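If your schedule permits, I should be very grateful for your opinion on a structural question. I would ask you to consider whether the tokens describe a fold that such a sequence might reasonably adopt. Thank you for your consideration; the sequence and its tokens are set out here.
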Amino acid sequence: MTQALLAQFDVCIVSWRTRELLRACLQTVVGLPAGRVAGQPEVARVIVVDNASGDGTVEMVRAEFPQVHLIANEENRGYAAANNQAIRAGDAPFVFLLNPDTAAGQGALAALLREMMDDPRVGAVAPQLVLPDGSVERSCRSFPEPAAVLYDAAGLSRLFPRSEVLGRYRMTYWDHSSRREVDQPMASALALRRAALDEVGLFDESFPLYFNDVDLCYRLRQAGWRIVFQPGAKVLHHHGGSTSQARPRAVLESHRGLVRFYRKHYRGEARPERKRRVSLPGYWVVVLMAALTAYPRAAFVWLAHPGRTRRMP
């Protein structure tokens, strides 16, 4: 694979109060002052959108990474809107979404690009996420259909983790060590084909924090694009660099995102020919469960971490 082919990625990073993590992340995609990181391809453009961090992030990027295309928002526009800003700022045929709490491993971008170059119907490729302790993060899930969500909420996936039926929402039966097609990988590190985005659209900004990636993957799959997990590409993930600073709000947004996803795709705004029908009882059980448990869960998180939570703008 020639360097010219490898230079077809726009790397898009959205940051919020993660200055030090972002610095480490950028060093893996634009290189150290002495040159590029060994084994990493040159990319078309690295785009950072800062969501009004106010922690010196903007100043750090301008001083240390002048080659980065920086968009400094005056307010926190949310993860979905900021990612859309970054994607629109580039024009390379492939986009690599990275969270600032990640670090791309040697050869990761090349492995992701190779997967998409080999099959023109692959619209997205997810790398294997590795946690700081060296363990592999379970970063893929199935779409949140009622039975899968209810099995998980009832704890059956923990009791029977090897069951492909009871554990299908979190895919507990799979160790994330093999290549396979998946429904919805985390967007913490996700390669996307721009032609696929042109067809299905960018992130839905009515999902500001959570389920915007689930919604995008759902639309990709409904349009016939393949989504592949490629363990040969490895990315270090510190997990929750931004959202851990606002845990109660993150819990609420997660529940709201699930309800919004159900209303859009299972009983609402999607075009009829692309809507996956679910039973009416299943729909309402999940929606009511998500609505009724959101605030109790957020309160529990706040009580468990009272000194570590900050208000997310």
